[in-house]
Each structure stands twice: as structure tokens, then as C-alpha cells.
């Protein structure tokens, strides 16, 4: 068999280099931050992490079975055929020294203990919500509040979801005035990035306020 042309070897080499650059972190990275993406069943967490991750995201999706219908609320999820049973994992490098690790949690109530354990070491969480099933967001927010983990809320805008004023949504979810509430499309990288920025800015402001308070009492 003849050998491949040099141009093909060069192209293959370029592909390997491109993959390597995406997979491995640059040596300059000094800080890693862990953030959670939480929310109820079928709210779009896996899609959100996949849209943002610069590497091929780790997914633990399994095909849904009839047995699951006995314990999971499948209302409004007629097109959903798989579900996360452990976690989703993605990575997003913000600059030469900072990288974010995104952990998407399973949404079913029977996995609550699992994602409670995942909060260890996390700086905060982004709660994805669906206006068609807004009441189902309370469980996730309640757990985060019990654990003292700060969070922002992003409304994942499904095509058939009703639109409401953000002030009405804030009141319905009983959010604190300082808790960020934004809209996003989990399928869109730019939209998802804006939602994540809202969370990161909120966490940075909280850190700054805490530091200022400590200085005042020093």
C-alpha cells in the first residue's frame, strides 16, 4: 500500500493539534472554579452544559423506560427519550488564568442526595427554570438555600412556553431582590454565556461585599 500524501499527513497533524489545544489546559491557568447547573427534570441542563463546554462534555444519559414513568413527572416532556442519571460535565476557559468547571445535576427528586454531594466545593449554581412548570423549580432552590449556596435563575425559553414579565416571574418564585433573573436559550452558546455571566458577576459582587464588610470590622 502506498503512503498517504504529505498534505494529508499535515492536515491530520493539524486536526490532532486542534483537538489537543481544546482538551488540555494552558500552563498559565492558576484558578479553577466549580459551578453547578441545576433544575427540575427536562429543563435543559444537559443542553446548556453542552452549548458552553469547550471540550466534548461528559454525559451520563440513559434511555428512559416505562418504569421511570411511575416515579418521574413526564408532563410536558413528550419528546424526551433520555435522562441524566449521574451528572453532566463541561469546561469553559475564561482567560489565560481562570477556568470554569460546569456540573449539570440530574433533575429527578430521587437523585437529590447525589447532587447535594456535588455542591461540595462549588462557588454557586445556575438554576434553569421553565415557565410551563415554574413550581417545580422550588425544590432545587430550596436545597441550595438550605446549603447556603448562592444562585442565579435563568428562564430557559422553550418554543411553546408562555412569556411572562420578569417582575412577575420574580414574584412567583419569591426571589430576593439581589438574586439575578435572566432569560436564555440553552441551545444557543451566546445566550447561555450571558446567563452564566450573570451568575459569575453576582458571585464576584458577593465576594467583594464580603471583603468590604470584613475590612470595616477589622
UniProtKB/TrEMBL annotation:
Organism from which the protein derives: Streptomyces xiangluensis
Keyword GTP-binding: yes
PANTHER family per UniProt: ATP/GTP-BINDING PROTEIN-RELATED, GLIDING MOTILITY PROTEIN MGLA
Family classification: Belongs to the GPN-loop GTPase family.
Protein name, entry field: ATP/GTP-binding protein
InterPro entries: Gliding_Motility_GTPase, Gpn, P-loop_NTPase
Keywords assigned by UniProt, alphabetized: GTP-binding, Hydrolase, Nucleotide-binding
Keyword Transcription regulation: no
